[in-house]
């Protein structure tokens, strides 16, 4: 994040800084505007996509800037073009985030070109457009040069960021083994972290799997990135495979030393992953911080003090932690040993299953040109509100920067009500506190050099956080804009912050109210589709696990693809739950039941992964006919839950488990006195499916 902020701030500040020495800071500011507009399209991804969309942005903003400045005196024409630009650019959202950012770049260019005071100076339309073009080309050169100079850096940063979130996930999971347990709070924190992990995994997957040069690379860096990401996914799976009845376990072991030792190992594995992430991000060779063999030995000694029944439960935790430690060890070995080999399928062999080509077709756009599409409704809503905002600018007296109203509407309004509501609050908060910081610097720091350095630092932090933590980014952005005005104009800073705050309130109010009144998109109307998709992915994943349990054979590509779908849909369930509960209380959906569904869904995936891990760890376990009968029953019960949300045909029928399979030997009991571990987990899965069915029936659809 910081390197991106530094790169952007450097690209923005250098033109006005250099041209300021020649008395033409106005030209430098216009060039900087071109930098800002092009930067919007420079989001993490493979080089080809970044380059193409930045070039598109440069071309489009040049044309829009020239046309808008040329027609600026014809108010009725500018008024008529505004909704056309807004609607068409908003519809680009159907093509994904990169196209969405291109649309935002064009809309911001149009709005900022309406103002004559953005950059100062009296320039002709072609001069103004050429300066914006120069700024775009300047940023394109800087961005691509850095990427060529450090070809792996973006992938390293994304992988390190993903690893940090996986480490945080494990730290939160370690809270289950603290002496005091808040089960619901800890589970909610886990689910929220899982949303972030899913986003980070998607980005790393794009940067790694779409980069054939990196996958085929035989250098230490390229090779380690590919296999480290693969191992990181396995570690995350192992974290999810340890879902127990924590409340019951806490009652039994919560005050024992064994629990504290488990918690210590969880925290240390989290710190170890964060240490590796730091070293990956800084292109260094990571070194192990902890002696995990010693820690695991201590844990094993404590577990051996318990009787056989308790020992089995604690041993499952021990073996899972041991597996995680082994995977961390493999990551270290990739960096330290040239010829290390792990029994793992090369990710490049199933590349095409995890990456899908992006479709930029007219058909995809036409499919969304109806009121069923939330994107279409948002595009119409935004166009209408922008018209209202444009008319409002004529009613605001004594405002030189009333285009801020339109800017506020553009950056706040999102397709979903909850996101618009959140953005509104964050922008208002950032504007107020950023304004206070800006006023303090302008009025209490008189040394121009110190003031300039502070502005530069605020700028770096603004572009570091704006995409990731919007409220903090807005705070720094507001502060640095106010300070920059003190250098560029004679305006009173109090007047400027007053204008910015007023325009933010007006634009934010228009955006917020319109989300209620103009073609509103309520997440609660579509939540059943998200829940059904999650249940379907759970069913297909569970079928593969059951098939492996019976046959002891699995296609790893199909398994990993199914696992990815489960994680994506699990994150979607949590995400939509958070958005629904922030909507007005118009729907009859019970928030408590939604929360329970989210938790049960998470538990279901964990128990399923736990069954797979058990069968991989204990090769001598035998499948009995009663196991298969229960598996078929569980699958049928899960199908019944899916149907609650609407009719759907799955890829596999429960009875397909028996296809081309000879019935195993009937074991009436497992050898020795060891309990039936398979049956125990199957019964837990059955119980969770029952809970999912119960909570699904209680919700009003």
Verbal overview:
With 701 residues, the protein is mostly helical. 73% of the residues lie in helices and 0% in strands. It contains 27 helices and no strands. It has helices spanning 2-20, 25-39, 47-70, 75-90, 97-113, 125-149, 153-173, 183-209, 212-216, 220-240, 246-253, 257-281, 292-303, 308-336, 351-354, 362-366, 374-393, 403-412, 417-444, 448-465, 470-488, 493-517, 527-551, 556-580, 591-617, 625-644, 677-698. The two termini are 41 Å apart. Mean pLDDT is 80; it is low at 664-674.
Overview features:
701 residues, mainly alpha, 73% helix, 0% strand, globular
| Rounded radius of gyration (Å) | 28 Å
Low-confidence stretches: 664-674
> What order do the helices and strands follow?
HHHHHHHHHHHHHHHHHHHHHHHHHHH
SSE-based structural type: mainly alpha
Got a strand count? 0
Q: Percent of residues in helical segments?
A: over 70%
Q: What characterizes the major β-sheet? A: none
Short recap of the structure:
With 701 residues, the chain is mainly alpha-helical. The protein contains 27 helices and no strands.
What is the element layout, followed by pairings?
Blueprint: H1 2-20, H2 25-39, H3 47-70, H4 75-90, H5 97-113, H6 125-149, H7 153-173, H8 183-209, H9 212-216, H10 220-240, H11 246-253, H12 257-281, H13 292-303, H14 308-336, H15 351-354, H16 362-366, H17 374-393, H18 403-412, H19 417-444, H20 448-465, H21 470-488, H22 493-517, H23 527-551, H24 556-580, H25 591-617, H26 625-644, H27 677-698
Helix pairs in contact: 1-2, 1-6, 1-20, 2-3, 2-6, 3-5, 3-6, 4-5, 4-17, 5-18, 7-8, 7-10, 7-12, 8-10, 8-24, 10-14, 12-13, 12-14, 13-14, 17-18, 17-22, 18-22, 19-21, 19-22, 20-21, 23-24, 23-25, 23-26, 24-25, 25-27, 26-27
């Amino acid at each position: 994040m910081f390197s991106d902020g530094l790169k952007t701030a450097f690209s923005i500040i250098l033109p006005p800084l250099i041209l300021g020495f020649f008395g033409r800071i106005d030209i430098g500011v216009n060039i900087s505007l071109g930098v800002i507009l092009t930067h919007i399209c420079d989001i993490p991804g493979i080089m080809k996509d970044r380059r193409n969309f930045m070039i598109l942005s440069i071309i489009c903003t040049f044309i829009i800037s020239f046309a808008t400045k040329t027609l600026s005196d014809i108010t009725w024409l500018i008024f008529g073009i505004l909704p056309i630009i807004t609607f068409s650019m908003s519809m680009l959202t159907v093509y994904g985030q990169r196209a969405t950012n291109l649309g935002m770049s064009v809309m911001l260019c149009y709005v900022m070109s309406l103002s004559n005071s953005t950059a100062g100076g009296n320039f002709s339309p072609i001069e103004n457009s050429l300066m914006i073009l120069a700024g775009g080309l300047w940023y394109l050169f800087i961005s691509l040069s850095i990427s060529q100079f450090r070809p792996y850096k973006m992938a390293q940063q994304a992988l390190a960021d993903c690893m940090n979130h996986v480490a945080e996930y494990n730290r939160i999971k370690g809270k289950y083994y603290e002496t005091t347990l808040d089960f619901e709070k800890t589970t909610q924190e886990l689910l929220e972290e899982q949303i972030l992990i899913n986003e980070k995994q998607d980005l790393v997957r794009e940067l790694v799997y779409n980069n054939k040069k990196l996958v085929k690379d035989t250098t230490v860096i390229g090779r380690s990135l590919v296999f480290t990401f693969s191992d990181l996914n396995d570690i995350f799976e192992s974290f999810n495979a340890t879902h127990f009845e924590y409340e019951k376990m806490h009652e039994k072991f919560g005050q024992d030393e064994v629990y504290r030792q488990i918690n210590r190992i969880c925290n240390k594995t989290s710190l170890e992953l964060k240490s590796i992430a730091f070293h990956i991000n800084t292109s260094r060779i990571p070194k192990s911080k902890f002696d995990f063999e010693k820690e695991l030995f201590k844990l094993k000694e404590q577990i051996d003090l318990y009787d056989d029944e308790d020992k089995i439960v604690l041993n499952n935790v021990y073996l899972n932690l041991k597996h995680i430690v082994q995977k961390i060890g493999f990551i270290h070995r990739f960096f330290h040993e040239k010829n290390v080999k792990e029994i793992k399928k090369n990710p490049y062999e199933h590349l095409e299953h995890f990456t899908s080509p992006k479709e930029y077709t007219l058909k995809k756009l036409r499919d969304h040109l109806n009121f069923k599409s939330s994107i279409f409704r948002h595009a119409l809503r935004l166009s209408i509100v922008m018209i209202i905002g444009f008319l409002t600018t004529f009613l605001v007296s004594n405002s030189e920067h009333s285009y801020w109203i339109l800017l506020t509407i553009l950056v706040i309004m999102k397709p979903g009500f909850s996101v618009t509501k959140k953005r509104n609050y964050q922008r208002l908060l950032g504007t107020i506190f950023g304004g206070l910081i800006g006023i303090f610097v302008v009025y209490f720091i008189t040394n121009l050099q110190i003031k300039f350095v502070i502005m530069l630092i605020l700028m770096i932090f603004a572009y570091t956080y704006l995409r990731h933590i919007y409220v903090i980014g807005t705070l720094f952005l507001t502060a640095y804009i106010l300070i920059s005005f003190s250098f560029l104009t004679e305006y009173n800073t109090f007047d400027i912050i007053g204008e910015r705050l007023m325009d933010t309130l007006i634009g934010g109010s228009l955006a917020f109210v319109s989300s209620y009144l103009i073609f509103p998109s309520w997440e609660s109307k579509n939540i059943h589709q998200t829940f059904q998709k999650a249940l379907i992915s759970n069913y297909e994943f569970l079928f593969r696990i059951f098939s492996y349990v019976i046959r002891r054979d699995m296609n790893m590509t199909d398994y990993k693809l199914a696992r990815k779908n489960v994680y994506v849909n699990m994150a979607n369930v949590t995400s939509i739950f958070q958005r629904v509960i922030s909507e007005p209380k118009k729907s009859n959906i019970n928030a408590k039941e939604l929360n329970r569904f989210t938790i049960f869904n998470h538990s279901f995936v964990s128990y399923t992964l736990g069954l797979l891990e058990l069968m991989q760890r204990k090769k001598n376990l035998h499948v009995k006919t009663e196991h298969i009968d229960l598996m078929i029953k569980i699958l049928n019960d899960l199908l019944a839950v899916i149907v609650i949300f609407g009719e759907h045909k799955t890829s596999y029928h429960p009875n397909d488990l028996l296809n081309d399979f000879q019935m195993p030997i009937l074991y009436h009991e497992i050898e020795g006195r060891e309990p039936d571990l398979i049956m125990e987990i199957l019964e837990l899965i059955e119980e969770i499916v029952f809970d999912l069915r119960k909570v699904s029936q209680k919700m009003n659809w």
